[in-house]
Design brief:
single chain; alpha/beta; Rossmann fold; six-stranded mixed β-sheet; 5 helices; binds zinc ion
């Protein structure tokens, strides 16, 4: 399986699109994570406040792309139908997303989409605004974002790395505390966290 699994459903915007994309990790950020993966819709438990945070992003005019590593797929635990049923429940409980990108690969598959590589973010950006970054220079300066308000919310350094590679503002949250802990900063156009991808 090459490339990420892309679920695309560009939403009607209730306010004018601000041109930016909010890239959001899933497990530990919108729903509680698990060391054994989220394997079914029944295992998906939403963190309180996630729905309100997504509504706030919408009312600020962001388009929203979920970007999630799910190596259980290439480990053969389950397939695309399962990820789609989990994402269907996620959207019922939290709200709809413009794009949901899932990397099915393991480290050893050496794909371009497993975070911290930015393949899923670039793919989503290409779908939403027909523009994205090309090669990453991890040792160079942080790239300029396509839109200055682009942002990445995640709980792991791999999320911060992927966001860094597309120049996004970075908001690292504690696992299972989630997006609610940074939404006020996002509303205030905070510059985000410092992050060095080669430290
Ligand atoms: Zn991948």
């Amino acid at each position: 399986m090459e490339g990420p699994i892309a679920e695309v459903n560009l939403q009607e915007m209730e306010v004018e699109w601000n041109g930016a994309i909010a890239f959001i990790d899933r497990d530990g950020v919108l729903n509680y994570g698990s060391p054994n993966y989220i394997n079914s819709p029944e295992e998906l438990r939403i963190i309180k406040g996630s729905k309100e945070a997504i509504m706030a992003l919408r009312s600020l005019g962001y388009r929203i792309a979920i970007v999630t590593n799910q190596s259980a797929i290439m480990r053969g635990k389950w397939g695309e139908d399962t990820i789609k049923s989990i994402h269907s429940k996620l959207q019922k409980e939290v709200g709809n997303f413009d794009v949901l990108m899932t990397c099915p690969h393991r480290n050893r598959d050496r794909c371009n989409c497993r975070k911290p590589r930015p393949g899923m973010l670039n793919h989503a950006s290409q779908i939403i605004r027909a523009e994205c970054h090309s090669e990453v220079d991890w040792w160079g300066p942080k790239p300029k974002p396509i839109h200055p308000l682009d942002l990445m919310v995640g709980d792991r350094n791999s999320d911060m790395g992927a966001g860094w590679a597309v120049g996004a503002r970075l908001f690292q949250v504690e696992e299972d505390v989630g997006i609610t802990s940074v939404i006020e900063r996002i509303i205030q156009d905070d510059a985000g966290d410092e992050f060095n991808p080669v430290e």
